[in-house]
Amino acid sequence: MSEQLYNRVAVLRSDRGLSRQQLADAVGVNYQTIGYIERGEYNPSLDLALRMAELFELPVEAIFSRRPLPPLSQQLYPRDSSNGRTT
To answer: What is the enclosing helix (H) or strand (E) of 24?
Structure first.
């Protein structure tokens, strides 16, 4: 049985102004596959995950994880837990 992978595909796709069809064409899959991946209903193969990482120019672990991913804003702008300010 395969465990669910968490991902940022929808956020990254939207950030780059890509439709599901455009992303699917760029990585060589059906546009419905992109929807399944975004909703966590389908885990991509390693090859597909690596193609997506190359397209987004990010490490694969920045896109896919076995644990829930924190919001990108939280990773880019971490808060100092002692005073609540951005560090």
So the answer is: helix 20-27
